[in-house]
Sequence to fold (171 residues):
Amino acid sequence: MRKLLVIFMAGIFGLSYSQKVPTALKTGFSKEALQQKLEDEEGKSITVQQILNQHKGKVLVIDFWAGWCRDCLKALPKAEVLEKNNPNVDFVFLSLERSKEGFDKSLVRFNMKDKNNYWFASGWKNDFNNYVDLNWIPRYMVIDQKSAIAKYYAISPEDPEIQQTIDHLLK
Fold:
């Protein structure tokens, strides 16, 4: 009986902390979300709008991750495959590390230095993450050539809708 209770409680605990699909799938960003500041590897401040402007005219995949996130680390090799299979697509990695030191260490440790990396110095709770309903990582979004959201919600780089969305946008 005790084992059954432990299994039941573990199941309830797991469900309460599992990623929930947002009820509204957004296709654009709010002004506040676009003004959210991140930092690049050199510690320079940049807004989400500036990042999107750098990739305007290209399909962009945004990958939310952190070096302390086991699910993110399991997904990294699959994200690399997605990136290699889509050479005409830009990829941006938004880190949710808890410190600049953690961000720097994770980039080296997980061979991310040659990628387009930024981190939320403001932490998880900020205007951008709140707007996109970020409640778990990893998380993936596909942005079209005009900086609109084409695929709002994916939790795995293997989600077939990511590739379908990319293929549709590149036609």
Residues 10-17 have pLDDT under 50 and may be disordered.
